[in-house]
């Protein structure tokens, strides 16, 4: 988020000292400060925009869930209960954000929008760290949902609670970062600790499918990586938790990319449930949906305040929370490789950022585009971010237009992932058909 953190360490104490001093000199106390625009309630949520965006993102998901695939009632029921709780979480989050904004402003947790510097909006105090509201509502929803779906002896309950532990731990560390402004070296370390409960509870496969062109060289179609696979998931948790925080700097981008990825994960889950007949495989993807639906609902509520012009900042609390939640659903849903492709835009942004993040080039505190207050346009700088690269390639844009373009790039990356999976499935089916044709009646059984 394009912000400059405020620093007002002792405003109340200083005022009291001045008042006491003037009383001793028998002078009348100074008049109370006039209420400024910074003390006014935040702008109302952008309900119309969120409603249209929700229809665009959620309509394909519900079409696949109710019409395209014949999904068993035992799977549909908990998904709908979870969706109902998520809808309630959306409205609760919308109501709680203005309340929480007043509290964080009182504690001087606010910032100024750097991309509006030189305009009246650039002098407005914007409440910081409002991602804590989303995280709290999410945790409440997911804990309540346990009563509707999991028996005390359920095998999934261990993984579910381990997931909540990792998410809660990362949310706490993110809020600490917002308050204490933790250095980057420590930020890279925090997710590695928060991922331990998740990795310890993981009981899924540790195998990978070898691409067909490499099978003749390796001699295996499926390779069991064992403990190495858990190391991969550990690094994935570190990357995904930080990459949303790195791919930021304009209003709505952090929450927007989370919403796009979460929508893609929902569609992927329902597609895998629909085409599979394996109950364990279906349950793994349903498990993922139980966490993604509340994330999507609460994030849409936050986006209604964070979309341009932003009236709240999400803070590192949200980026860490969202990143860890997406990692959890990918790992425990057993599609961590697919999840990495959904993060294609973040991978590109990270590769562009490597020279500055690792000290090969100077890394300023805010790697933001340059704002022209006269025209209201952003110009790309030489900093290694996808935001600046896009501006250098396609020219100056307004902040709102730039965010829309970058979210379309995010959606394109998710579309590429679906295309790769479809190509892989088609290639496998074609190979299977040719194998059956060549074997004749000797090979019977279903064609996948």
TrEMBL record:
Reaction(s) catalysed by this chain's protein: a di-trans,poly-cis-dolichyl phosphate + UDP-N-acetyl-alpha-D-glucosamine = an N-acetyl-alpha-D-glucosaminyl-diphospho-di-trans,poly-cis-dolichol + UMP
Compositional bias annotation for Low complexity: 11-23
Keywords: Endoplasmic reticulum, Glycosyltransferase, Magnesium, Membrane, Metal-binding, Transferase, Transmembrane, Transmembrane helix
Region (Disordered): 1-43
Compartments reported by the entry: Endoplasmic reticulum membrane
GO cellular component labels: endoplasmic reticulum membrane
Reported cofactor(s): Mg(2+)
This enzyme's EC code(s): 2.7.8.15
GO molecular function, one term: UDP-N-acetylglucosamine-dolichyl-phosphate N-acetylglucosaminephosphotransferase activity
Example GO biological process: dolichol-linked oligosaccharide biosynthetic process
UniProt xrefs under InterPro entries: Glycosyl_transferase_4, GPT
Regions that span the bilayer: 49-67, 79-105, 126-148, 160-176, 188-211, 231-248, 255-275, 287-305, 317-335, 341-360, 402-421
Pathway(s) served: Protein modification; protein glycosylation
Broadest EC class assigned to this enzyme: transferase
Membrane-protein topology: Multi-pass membrane protein
Role this protein plays: UDP-N-acetylglucosamine--dolichyl-phosphate N-acetylglucosaminephosphotransferase that operates in the biosynthetic pathway of dolichol-linked oligosaccharides, the glycan precursors employed in protein asparagine (N)-glycosylation. The assembly of dolichol-linked oligosaccharides begins on the cytosolic side of the endoplasmic reticulum membrane and finishes in its lumen. The sequential addition of sugars to dolichol pyrophosphate produces dolichol-linked oligosaccharides containing fourteen sugars, including two GlcNAcs, nine mannoses and three glucoses.
Family: Belongs to the glycosyltransferase 4 family.
PANTHER family: UDP-N-ACETYLGLUCOSAMINE--DOLICHYL-PHOSPHATE N-ACETYLGLUCOSAMINEPHOSPHOTRANSFERASE
Protein name: UDP-N-acetylglucosamine--dolichyl-phosphate N-acetylglucosaminephosphotransferase
